[in-house]
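Training component of the fellowship. As part of building independent skills, the fellow (R.M.) carried out the full modelling exercise for a liganded target. The chosen ligand was 5-amino-5-deoxy-1-O-phosphono-D-mannitol. The inputs are recorded below so that the supervisory panel can assess the work.
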Amino acid sequence: MCGIVGYVGKDKCVSKIIHGLEALEYRGYDSAGIAIFNKGKVDTFKEQGRIENLKKRIDLEAESHLGIGHTRWATHGEANKINAHPHTQGKFTIVHNGIIENYIELKQDLLKNGYVFLSETDTEVMAALLDFVYKEEKDVLKTIQKSCKMIRGSFALGILFHDNEDTLYATRLSSPLIVASGEEGNFIASDVPAILEFTNKYYLLDDLDIAVLKNESVTIYNQYNEVLKKELLTFEGNMEAGQKQGFEHFMLKEIHEQDNVFYETIHSYFDGSIDSLKQNFPDLSNFKKIDIVACGSAYHTGLVAKSLIEEYAVMPVNVEVASEYRYKQSFYDNNTLVILVSQSGETADTLAALRKAKTDGITTLAIVNVVGSSIAREADHVIYIKAGIEIAVATTKAYLAQLAIFSLLTIYFAYQRKLLKDEQINKIYEDIKKMPNLIRQIVDNQEYFMIGDKVFQHQNIFFIGRDIDYALSMEGSLKLKEISYINSVAYQAGELKHGTISLIEEDTPVIALSTKDELREKTISNIKEVKARGAKVIYVTTEMPKEKFYDEIILIPRVHPILQSILVIIPLQLISYKVAKNKDCDIDKPRNLAKSVTVE
Ligand code: M6R
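Fellow's submitted model of the complex:
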């Protein structure tokens, strides 16, 4: 949530910061702002809404070589110009990502000490706290260290101290922030896309590290004031990852990348032999129970995994939404493995669930996209998906890559428990080899867009399915509602008649999934129940039915059931995309959302 960029160097800073903010706009787009040193003073510019609005009102060529910028996803206070970052109090101007939980207590103390607040934000309180502590400490580093220890919550901060016109400060706790270094100067950023135009070299900050950036130097201190020797990392992806490359939206581009993403993800770990999995995955042979914990689409991949692992490896799998899991009684034991799934690796609730499991002494495995993210770093084991940078707020390729990893984990667990033999694994591998072509065929199929055209004017759309098809329905439904704002519900096909079927009216679209042979007859009966009540049924299946109980059919090529979901989800992604496009929605940046949810 929220994107931070800062720059200090020999070049003028404004256009670089704006460029970085544009690359981070997927993290929040309620308002944007920038603060720069200009002839001995700090100038701040803010606008409500998109970065575009800010860009129109500032001088991109302003004579300044040091500044910070921010694109906001509002937490404290309305999304207006006053609440937009940066915020200034006394000698400090800051940008902030995260939440300061005890800001009310702090604010009351600061009010007593004469501070006046213009905004409703927790960030302005942080700026005042820094200023207040500085009056006593008279040293910026000590001030940042002391202030950070006085707050509860999470933060990534870019800080300008008004008396040091050549220095940019940054620190973090449980919110992402990198420090990048290149020939053109030094940067801070919430995420790599912000800096890729200028450099691919960066440092990761650990919690409470403080980075001090000058024109030609970066010094990183830990919370005890010791200078750290950090490894300068190289981002392996390319710049194109952050560009649309001729596609109208990032979401469509990312859907089109899925054949490669599948290939890269699978072949990073598996060459058809169980030995390759043994070599590339951690040893998981001792575990007898699994908890999968995640949010949103990542949670939905956990539901697919539950169905697969329980069926093929006969291991109990408990799947929970991280925001619930973190506050609940857990029933794990020494044989439980907790798997955290997260594209960003920064989702606050998933990170908290990971920390809870670790505190309880339970082994954790993270399935993550962003290399070096907090969840990846803190888990006992990590398996990276190979989705590359995902920009669209609605995830597609990362979801598919998570499914690919769960397919491999299913094979791995089932083999370890002697429930899959080499010959069966060979057969699955034969299908794996066909998958990139099949994915490409589905992605290129324009017929799914026609289904989008048929349903986009409806107010309610249902997704139904049983077992794994229900898990996929959940994702289909989320995809549709988050980008098209159509109310959509996913329901277990057999459960509908216990109440929800009353919502079915003449012409209500029902997208019915049936890819599991054993359950097909049952699902078809449920489809007939909604059809009898006037529903327009879009039937998604792997087998052409002998009778016509549907209005439209999507026939998906049949592959091994461990891989099947990966193909089934793609038409649902494409239908949602087309519905949102027909409704003229802002597909890559849906209202009220942000890509990376680093607040609770
Ligand atoms: O980065 P994460 O995978 O942890 O994010 C989890 C959810 O916030 C995310 O999947 C969200 O539901 C997406 N908007 C879905 O498209």
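The panel noted the following from the submitted structure. Residues 295-298, 342-344, 347, 350, 393-395, 478, 482, 596-597 surround 5-amino-5-deoxy-1-O-phosphono-D-mannitol (CB under 6 Å). The radius of gyration is 25 Å.
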